[in-house]
Design a protein that fits this description.
299 residues, alpha/beta, six-stranded mixed beta sheet, 16 strands
Length: 299
């Protein structure tokens, strides 16, 4: 996390411990009387980049529909938002899917609850080296895959494939490789296989684990042939699954993103209203625009 982000969190700690789910009162005054007007506030953690832009529309919808003031707290990685939520620095976050949340709660003992779905942001593979081929083109040893645009790509044997290193997205990437017939993994590992659980790799693909923010830059590395990148970081590099993906997770993915609160706040009216504000047509249209058709509504 940058110094700027740390400063923001420090400010939140010093100014508030848990104010987001409380109702505040303000007054409007005319010449005759002053009546209290309820103004609600909620602090929502999101990842910087395209998902932040989507959340900005949800913020506007919350104000217009429910008089709910939303303050977006921006993070640059996937670890801090759940810690901040558990510690009371924010009230809700919207950045993760259930397998990731389950793993974090298991490892760290967080008391968090799913309060709604947002979007499926399909993970996808990208390359600056691989080019489309014809169906009949001679290729040699490796695997042919089909892009969302109907183009055929060939992944040669011994190619180096960069994938996210965090446990959930690592497993997600390996399952995507398996879906394309490139490897097989141990079924007993469910959604969380690791490279040690690869049971078959007939084309000797080399799996390189990198931190998620580094993956877009890895496409310029002479040693990397293909990288599997989350939408949040792909978007920052102007990559979209439908336009640039080599092979892409489909809409049946179990990795729908979720909106999360603390367990104690799951029935809070402000939290419920934010979920309803997020699950509006205006937010869906913004996500479709930003992700170029790569965001599938999960509600």
């Amino acid at each position: 996390m940058s110094i700027k982000k740390l400063a923001l969190i420090t400010t939140l700690v010093s100014a508030f411990f848990l104010t987001g789910c409380d109702n505040k009162q303000s007054a409007t005054t005319d010449n005759k009387s002053a009546e209290p007007v309820k103004v609600s506030t909620l602090k929502v953690g999101v990842i910087s980049g395209p998902e932040e832009e989507v959340a900005e529309v949800a913020k506007q919808q919350a104000k217009e529909l429910y008089n709910l003031d939303v303050e977006l707290v921006i993070f640059s990685d996937y670890v801090i938002p759940n810690q901040a939520l558990s510690d009371g620095l924010i009230d809700v976050n919207a950045f993760q899917h259930k397998p990731f949340l389950d793993e974090q709660m298991k490892e760290r003992g967080y008391k968090l609850a799913i309060v709604g779905n947002s979007f499926v942001y399909p993970i996808a593979s990208y390359s600056k080296k691989l080019k489309p081929i014809t169906q009949t083109e001679e290729t040699g040893s490796g695997v042919k895959v089909t892009s969302p645009r109907g183009e055929t790509f060939f992944i040669p044997a011994n190619s180096t494939i960069a994938i996210p290193s965090d446990p959930t997205n690592l497993g997600r990437s390996l399952l995507l490789l398996q879906h394309e017939g490139m490897i097989t993994v141990d079924k007993s590992k469910g959604l969380l296989p690791t490279v040690l659980d690869i049971t078959s790799n007939p084309y000797n693909y080399k799996i390189l684990e990198l931190e998620a923010p580094m993956l877009p830059r890895s496409l310029d590395d002479a040693q990397v042939d293909l990288a599997i990148i989350n939408n949040a970081f792909a978007g920052q590099a102007n990559l979209t699954p439908s336009k640039d993906g080599i092979f892409v997770e489909d809409k049946e993915s179990p990795y729908v993103n979720i909106i999360v609160s603390r367990e104690a706040d799951k029935d809070n009216e402000n939290v419920k209203n934010f979920v309803k504000a997020y699950q509006t047509e205006a937010v869906a249209q913004k996500a479709d625009q930003i992700f170029n058709g790569g965001a599938i509504r999960g509600w």
